Amino acid sequence: MSILRLTFHGGAGGQVTGSMHLLEAAGARILLDSGLFQGRRKEAYRLNATLPVDPRQLDAIVLSHAHIDHSGRLPLLVSRGFHGPIYSTAATRDLCGIMLPDSAYIQEKDAEYLARRGKKGPESEPLYTMADAVAVQELLVGIPYQRLVHLRKHLTFEFTDAGHILGSATVSMRITEDRPHRLVFSGDIGRTGLPIIRDPRPPQGPVDTLIIESTYANRMHESVHGAEDHLGDIVRRAAANGGKVLIPAFAVGRTQEIIYALHSLYRAGKIPEIPCFVDSPLAVNATDIFRLHPEIFDRREALVESSDQLFHWPMVHYVRDVSESKALNSRQGPAVIVAASGMIEAGRILHHLKNHGGDHRNVLLFVGYQAAHTLGRRILEGNREIRVFGDMMELRAEVERIDGYSAHADQNELRDWVRRLGGPVRRAFVVHGETEAGQAMAELLHEEGVEKVTIPKLGQSFDL
Ligand SMILES: [Zn+2]
Ligand SMILES: [Zn+2]
After folding, report:
1. What is the Å distance from ligand 1's center to 17 Cα?
2. Which numbered ligand comes closest to the C-alpha of 69?
3. For the domain 5-219+407-463, what is the CATH superfamily, name and number?
4. Which ligand lies nearest to the CA atom of residue 92 in the structure?
């Protein structure tokens, strides 16, 4: 019998980032995802720089979605000799075209910054260059959902919609050598009712091996509909006070959902006619990519059905130029400003916070996860004396948060996804979750009748 083996090289053993799993099947070596480890600089650098597989020995890469914790090591693999096909959906391919160069740019800027402060070391070197990031684009092959792809004799796969971000996919593989085997890799699982994109659609039928994410297996979220009403309330109240709403948001995905929600509230007459600024060049580019892929929008949503200009209405303004962005500093009257970065660690949101954060009429609104040790997290924890660009300031704007825009399924939604597979699951591997979340997911799978559940450690291999 030939080898049928799975090895977990990232997003394993309590880790969320660095998603990378090697499947050896039907005589081929296939990598599922090639994500970047994120977190403490030295440790992340060590994990990222030492590739656990020889890129020249790989036959293909199958990519679940464009988030950097799933795609961010592709340029490194290509720079070290990978030249096979990288399969993803067309939207994922296009998003990689802006996200990977952005990742290279951030690494180059970080390296310059550390060099200036005399902190030059091996881990301050960029992992790859802008040219490496662009080289990935030549290898990416866009595949529609539910289209069978023959990787080689006895090995096929297809994508189904994961409902997580634009283009996100669940991978369903069939190995027909010796005995038939079906392997499902969930990717990151999204939520029912998220704006713009369709709901998760688990592949149907019995599963021999399931690799499943567990990010929020131990939590529940506010509903998506609740989130839009909540956003409407906050904007109305700030506008009535003559204040601004500052929204730090990740440029790809979250920003488009917020724009869409504001448009939808505007059309329904639920927010007043105040200008909404999207102040981030990356977000402007990402919005263009959303516009290119209406074929995968959720046609059941009223706004998708009734408007072919989801991201345009008279009150929205997209800001690319630095001078235009600066003009917002002295702007009077109510407005909404959406800017990156999502955790207020960098980007134009810092300028807006510096210029508008001291005014009690304004609102600082969090719509995404705030990781430990970020300025966003410190503010959420109640800190009001904050450091912005090296100067201390008092944050007098009101602080609000909305949890309903999370792109990850919560416990109930994960359970529902497993149930909707429809067939028995013989064996499951739990990945992409901190320790407690992984354990909650393992428990959930046992409750749903999966007999053999494993939380793999980093580097661990299993014969299937
Ligand atoms: Zn993701
Ligand atoms: Zn992820």
Report:
1. 9
2. 2
3. Ribonuclease Z/Hydroxyacylglutathione hydrolase-like (3.60.15.10)
4. 1
Which ligand number lies closest to the CA of residue 215? Answer: 2
Per-domain residue ranges of the chain: 5-219+407-463, 224-401
What's the gap in Å between 61 CA and the centre of ligand 2?
Answer: 17
Q: Which two tokens stand for residue 317?
A: 């303004």
Q: Which residue has the tokens 């080689």?
A: 152
Distance, CA 188 to ligand 1 centroid (Å)? 5
CA distance 99 to 93: 10
First and final C-alpha spacing in the chain: 12
335: left (phi over 0), alpha (psi -120 to 50) or beta: beta
pLDDT, tens digit (0-9, with 9 covering 90-100), for 183-239: 999 999 999 989 899 999 999 999 999 999 999 999 998 888 889 999 999 999 999
- Cβ distance 275 to 174 under 8 Å? no
Nearest ligand to the C-alpha of residue 169? Answer: 1
In angstroms, what is the span from residue 403 Cα to ligand 1's centroid? 16
In three-state form (DSSP H/G/I as H, E/B as E, the rest C), the secondary structure along 138-170 is CCEEECCCCCCEEEECCEEEEEEECCCCCCCEE
**pLDDT tens sequence across 106-161:** 888 888 888 888 877 777 789 999 999 999 999 999 999 999 999 999 999 999 99
Q: Do domains 5-219+407-463 and 224-401 have the same CATH topology?
A: no
Task: Tell me which residue of 52, 91, 95 sits closest to 72, measured CA to CA.
Answer: 95
CATH class of 224-401: alpha beta
Cα distances (Å, whole numbers) of residue 389 to 320, 354, 357, 392, 399: 21, 8, 13, 8, 20
Ligand (nearest to CA of 33): 2
Q: Alpha-carbon distance 243 to 229, whole Å?
A: 19
Residue 116 Cα to ligand 2 midpoint, Å, equals: 32
The length of the chain, given as a count of residues: 464
- The token duo for 377 is 């997290």
Ligand closest to Cα of 190 equals 1
The token duo for 187 is: 């990717």
How do 335-339 and 276-279 pair as beta strands? parallel
